[in-house]
Amino acid sequence: MAPAAAEQSKGRLRILLMPFFATSHILPVTDLAFHLTAARPDAVEAIVATTHANASIVHSALARREPSIHAAKVKVTTYAFPAVDGLPPGVENMSTVAAADGWRLEAAAATESAMRPAQERLIREISPDAIVSDLHFFGWTSVIAAGLGIPCPLFSVVGIFPTLATWRLALLGRVKDAPPGGSVTIPEFPGPEISLPVTEMSDFLRNPPVFDPELGAQYMMLLKSSGFIANTFVDLEREYCESFDGCGYAKRTYCVGPLALPMPPPAAAGAPDRSACLGWLDTMPAHSVVYLCFGSLTNFSEAQLDELALGLEGSGVPFLWVVRVKKAWEPPVGWKDRVGSRGMLVTGWAPQTDILQHPSVGAFVTQCGWNSVLETIAAGVPVLTWPMLFEQFITERFMTRAISIGERLWPEGGGVRSTKYEEHELVPAKAIAQSVAKFMEHGGAADAARRRVKELSPKAHAAIAEGGTSRGDVHQLIDDFMAARAPAAGTT
User: Fold this and answer.
1) Where, if anywhere, are coiled coils annotated (predicted)?
2) Is the pLDDT of residue 181 over 80?
3) Strand partners of residue 18
4) Are the CB atoms for 377 and 262 separated by under 8 Å?
């Protein structure tokens, strides 16, 4: 019997994927589901499980893949989000929750008594052959999977560099010993020496929680038994991948990204559904425009938005600025008239992958979210960095120090930056104007960074294509799932 026929005779491999409740997590997990079904369309069934209010994000991500038959084979299922004090009904995503209440959603997601019952009912109802669980939450899925005798690798939405750096800092406990206002060098880390002020580290590094020893042991057992999946590709982080593998944290590491590739082609000029911002970009010279977008989780104060607006005005550089604010904000009086056609302000959503692929875009001002990192590398666009949250400050060092595809927007010594909203210092308009103007000078830093990122771009596309390293790891992941199922399939 041919291998494909043998697989079909056993029934399709059912893989249940469970992302955390943030768009930046849901999108790459959905993309992974797509790649799993595309790799073995006759043998694999992928099911993305999320809450009712988040299901539309999964459907939108799959619609982007249409008319692919593989996207149509990805199933979406839902379970109930628990009632949470302080959160209105239907608020189930980090991008829709008020900034002051984000901790409530995170706490609900991390609380076993709140989340496990609905998730466990769903898992037992579906009875999958494997579970892919979000690294940052839902640790109890490993216990459920162990009880069912199925593999449950952890999926990370960030790369190996920030993951390895964070684990080094956490496991070796260097942060808590740092003096107030001090910096910490990441220990036993390959590549250039990387140091960060304590203010630029996540709260759980600054104030380590007291972990349940039993849950911690189960977590490490899971890594060592089922593996670790990362949205990255080997040619981007080779020495960090090798160091991560050498640590023995996981039985196996699967580097399967960039999962957003292949990108759909941008809408052609004149297409009825083409975004107005792309039409505006058509009017600009090549590599002349600075594109600014800070993801779905960043919350700027009105004062900082004003300074950013005035800084872009003062830079003299054409810009396309996407502002995702949860409350009304208007630029300073007269700003739109003074900027005129040199700048475009978009409130809400914009087609980021289409924008980054546009030849007029010369630089990307980014908060250093990993999805944006991979998108800008795939498009070959250099960066100015402005991290705000979580591991973004570590990822910034990856872009500016390890692979040198851009620079910090606010130079060192400019003021305090922090992962905590209340510790942010205001970045003044003058500093923004000077940084943007200098970076975009002809023959300057942007041109040099563009040459380096242009070398990485084809490698990103090659990794996910047939014969690429990431495509190979997707197939290996499926093979390992099938091997784990084989003994059970043979029992009577």
Assistant:
1) none
2) no
3) 133
4) no
